[in-house]
Amino acid sequence: MKKCSKKKNYNRLLKAWQSLYISLGGTEQQVPAEGTAKPLISVVLIILFFFVFPPVGTAEKFQADSLLHLHTVYSSGNGTVEEVVAKARNTGDKILFLTDHDVIRMEYGIPPFRNILKKTVEQKSVNSIGPAKYLSEIKRVNSKYDDMIIIPGVESTAHYFWTGSFFNDTLVSNNWHKHITIIGLDTLEKYTALPVIHNGFSTSYIKELLPGFLPFIAAFILSFVLYLKGEGTLRKIALAFMIISILFAINYHPFKSSMFSQYDSDAELFPYQELIDYAEKSGALSIWAHPESNYEERKIDSINIYTPSHAEDLVRSQDYTGFEALYRDKSKMIESGKEWDTILLQYCNGERKNPVWGVGGIDYHANGDERIDEVETVLLIDTADTLNKNAVLDAIRKGHCYARRNGKENKVILQDFTIGNTESETRYGMGELVKLTGNPELSIKIGEKSGHTFPFNLELIRNGRRIREIKGEAPYSEKFTDEPDKKEKGYYRLIIKTGKGDHIVSNPIFFDYARSTGGN
């Protein structure tokens, strides 16, 4: 019975093969005989399989320009959501990541009741205006400009702390500009539950904060009992203790949005790691913003603020998506052998679960003649037809992108940066892992959007060391092989500069000789 069934299935396959053979130009007389059809069918099926299911890896992808880190009137920006979107649309950037500040609020109180006897300075933010209004306005504008992809998010100050004294004018707010942008927060609940200081009423840390609250509740209950049973002086003392204990209970209530107060100078990276972990659980992206910007000494409403460069914090923190490799300030940690390479080598050595990707952050506020497209993140999407919100977030999450800072004349394009085995046509691009069997073949192609020619300087970095420098003129294209240590997992990345302010930072392409799987 089984033998008959197999023969029937084979005959059906043979007829299908004969029809295909004739449709491709053969004649009935040329149709292979039954004895020769089996191997021919196998060959054809294999060929068809590779046409329908091509090898994995990066073929030439669609490049989509995006603007990341934009502010509107919902925080420190001067443009409405619609004005910012329209301006970006005019430059050809149709993917926007809006990141208004979630909270802009500082408090300083007098001990022992610092949360009661306090001065508060607050500016408009998503929290103060309302995240529901923020999301609603973004949705409205995106419906109007339906050719745009607008992804909401926030820029967060997870923590800050005070040093000095209010009474001798030495009071300083530290780390006020140590920011992480959280991208892809799409529901009201995800905003109200953000674990950042001054984000309102929260039940997230009751378990941790309750031990500091309960003694005052116990003192209040005891004082209340004494007040009811006591007389004269004892009753007065009990009343005083009731008032004091309730004030302390209010001051140390456990319904806070962060475990750390602005007086905890030893919180270090814990509040930031909490925020990163929250973003990951929420399905959002976490990007360290402007880690080396010059925010050392500034003032906000007569308050001294101090935020030193903190590139080392990116080495110490874990599980965030990426960082702003390019922004409108100097970035040193992208140079060969600096902090980014330390982080990438941690990943290669198994000390880090995921790689860390570089993006471009504009930090746009619509101030005067500020250029909205000076810094972009160029996303690599499979095809233009697959461009949607999920594909955009996935491109950054997987490192399928590169950072670009534009001069006033050019928009440089990294048209190709791929790696493959010398004996294979399959190519792997930024954010991917290629399993090598021999020496890797690298392909680099540089162009410009309008077809301009321009001089450039290119650095090729392998495992934290610059292994090649190319000075030439674009358009430029080259393929060459390299000989890395076959015992180590590693990566290649590029830095491209021109003499006119253009700057490209690629994401890494990883290689491995030991692992049997490829691709991120």
Give a structural overview:
- The chain is of the alpha+beta class and 520 residues long.
- Among the domains are: 2-52, no CATH class; 214-251, no CATH class.
- Helix content is 29%, strand content 28%.
- It is built from 13 helices and 24 strands.
- The chain has helices at 2-23, 34-52, 81-91, 126-129, 131-144, 188-192, 206-209, 214-229, 232-251, 270-281, 311-316, 339-348, 389-397, and strands at residues 62-70, 95-101, 105-109, 118-122, 149-156, 161-163, 172-174, 180-183, 285-288, 295-300, 303-307, 322-326, 357-360, 375-381, 401-405, 412-421, 433-435, 440-448, 454-462, 465-474, 476-481, 490-498, 503-506, 509-512.
- The strands form four sheets. It has a 15-stranded mixed sheet that branches.
- β6 and β7 form a beta hairpin.
- It starts with a helix and ends in an 8-residue tail after the last strand.
- Residues 1-59 have low confidence and may be disordered.
Fold blueprint:
Elements: H1 2-23, H2 34-52, E1 62-70, H3 81-91, E2 95-101, E3 105-109, E4 118-122, H4 126-129, H5 131-144, E5 149-156, E6 161-163, E7 172-174, E8 180-183, H6 188-192, H7 206-209, H8 214-229, H9 232-251, H10 270-281, E9 285-288, E10 295-300, E11 303-307, H11 311-316, E12 322-326, H12 339-348, E13 357-360, E14 375-381, H13 389-397, E15 401-405, E16 412-421, E17 433-435, E18 440-448, E19 454-462, E20 465-474, E21 476-481, E22 490-498, E23 503-506, E24 509-512
Parallel strand pairs: 1-2, 2-5, 7-11, 9-12, 12-13, 17-24
Antiparallel strand pairs: 1-14, 3-4, 5-8, 6-7, 8-9, 10-11, 14-15, 15-23, 16-18, 18-21, 19-20, 19-22, 22-23, 22-24
Helix pairs in contact: 8-9
